[in-house]
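Field notebook, page 723. I keep forgetting to write these up properly, so this time I am using the form the group agreed on. The chain and the ligand, HDE, are recorded exactly as supplied. Prediction of the bound pose follows.
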Amino acid sequence: MVKKLSKGVVKVKGETPKKAPELPPAADQPTSYAELLGHGGETHQITTAALTMTTQQGLPIADGQNSLKAGPRGPILLEDFILREKIFHFDHERIPERVVHARGYGAHGVFELTDSLADFTTADVLNTTGQQTEVFVRFSTVAGNKGSFDLARDVRGFAVKLYTQQGNWDIVGNNIPVFFIQDAIKFPDLVHAVKDEPDRGFPQAQSAHDNFWDFASLSPEAWHMIMWQMSDRTIPRSFRTMEGFGVHSFRLVNAAGKSTFVKFHWKPRQGLQSVLWNEAVKINGADPDFHRRDMWQAIESGDFPQWELGVQLFDQETADKLPFDHLDATKLIPEEDIPVRIVGTMTLNRNVDNFFANTEQVAFCTQNIVPGVDFSDDPLLHGRNFSYLDTQLKRLGSPNFTHLPINAPRCPVMNFQQDGHMAMRNPVGRANYEPNSWGADGGPRENPEMGFNSFAAELPPTTKQRIRSETFADHYSQARLFFTSQLPIEQKHIGDALVFELSKVERVDIRARAVSHLRNIDGGLAATVADGLGMALPDAAKAAKPTQDLPPSPKLSILANGPGSFKGRRMGLFLTDGSDADLFSGLTEALDEGGATWEVVAPKIGGVTLNDGTQVAAKHKIDGGPSILFDAVAILPSAEGAAMLAGDAASKDFVSDAFGHCKFIGYVAEAQKLFDAARIPAELDAGFVLLATARDAAAFIRTCRDLRFWPREVAVDMDAASL
Ligand code: HDE
């Protein structure tokens, strides 16, 4: 980014080389590794520059560049313990990746309570307004491996660890409020089915294959979540533009021991935003780290993402009146039925300084709750409570993973648990059992007043059996509710996604079985998908319960809940030598004022010289900065520049992709040659805004408030004719 100082002199924004951190005076420097490790915080910050390099044992190293050899040309001697230690440690650097949610990205932040829930819960973090609680959040995709790409069509994990004064509270949620299955015993099957097929080891990070749709088409309970999965929710524009949901009902318990059911919501202040599927496919190639880079950049630039914490509170009587069972994780409660009460704000304000120590080693567990919060009887939740602790042991290798700085509570931890691999928190003294009479009071001891008490739920007389509740049997009504709550363009995207995914399924009978479920959800959708696949409409799947028509819930639409401004979004400025300097200044000033970001795309990474001689640095060379990386673009070449680039494939792609992805396009008249070369229809639609002078900049940015110019989709997609 460039700011013009005076004619021909520029300051390149954000590129001022950072001053090297000043080293403390020698006397203040840590003298030992142990002292370094004692620095606290979430990672062990080691400024090796200040010190002589040592082995893990602290032995100063004289030569780290050459191994110990018999003669200058080898062989290497077994005696070289420095070499062996280094290679040994390297060999053991990897820990198992998460069995699901392997690819993730985390950031630190703070939660501030704005509305006390003291009437409902004793949880300190939800009682005192204005109180700030440290948090760590990890966003993730589910199916792909750790090294997969960010824009897979997939559910996103949204896991929040709140370091409260009463212990760590983890809300391990997703960006979708429901789940595929109703009982934890089905989880390994679901995950096996969606991940790469075991014989061939592909496809990576995608559900578009036979095994997933085979499982899905044999699991009617999955179809509500499948509607979400096929919607634009699973191709978010950014982690910053996703909602988070705790999914299950939990309980809040107050000082009088009264329980209230609660569902947790995180609502992004940035508004909901997604990309298009064709764009997602291309982003994965151009920038597989699109989401993590976006989060990193936003936080580094001080544009801290924020979410509001919302709660849906309801009692047993209300629960009994709902037209479905709230203990069934395939169901949501429409906000129109039980409004979401906003009670706090979460701000992510600090990037990790060591990815492994923080994002990889963080261990979320649904069983991490605090006094005043408790579980509902949701059978999926209970399975999760077992799984998370179990998997952390496998992944982190020791029951002492709670000693790692990212997992350690920020309040005192006192008990008689001891030893184990890598124990870092080792109590001293003789007593390691309870009760004991060694200390003054034999502590630490339990505290019935402030300690966690399970809610004393009454249980009706019942029998032990392996069974699925009849109240879980309505599989399609909320799937229909989700579909009918979408705007027409969103419904089209769901149809497109289903056709795409099922077109990757080789077995025709699986395709047909999938479409048979759609018949119970929406007849029009079923017909569209069957037509898109070129197959006859199959009979409807046998339904355990008939589909009910529920009133639509506008809150379920992304487009109805968008950002309403260009703030926090990114404009691509396509420049060449000779581009108009006034327009460039006007546009960049308007973007800066509006809290948006912008990046220059130019024929050469060295930048361009504007028509007043100003030099502007480029962020991307054209083929390295395709328009898919931007929310909107401004095509601002000089006449010579446009003529030169009219034959350039990457420049034509830049324009035609922006057009095809329904982006708002600001342009100068000189761009016409490039538009013609990119075969943009001669009559420009209302998504194009002419930037005749710098005064037009503000109006263009206002136009970009809407996410996309959707009417264009009808023109660019033959499947849209039915809209
Ligand atoms: Fe998870 N899930 N899950 N899950 N899940 C894991 O725990 C599991 C479910 C979710 O960023 C694992 O630490 C079972 C629903 C997130 O580190 C594992 C069932 C929801 C993350 C596990 C579910 C989630 C995980 C793998 C069905 C949304 C990533 C690694 C009963 C509410 C957390 C790990 C992070 C991770 C088990 C279903 C969200 C294996 C058995 C429903 C966000 O323990």
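OBSERVATIONS:
- Residues 535 and 575 are 48 Å apart (CA to CA).
- The chain is about 25% helix and 15% strand.
FOLLOW-UP: compare against the apo run.
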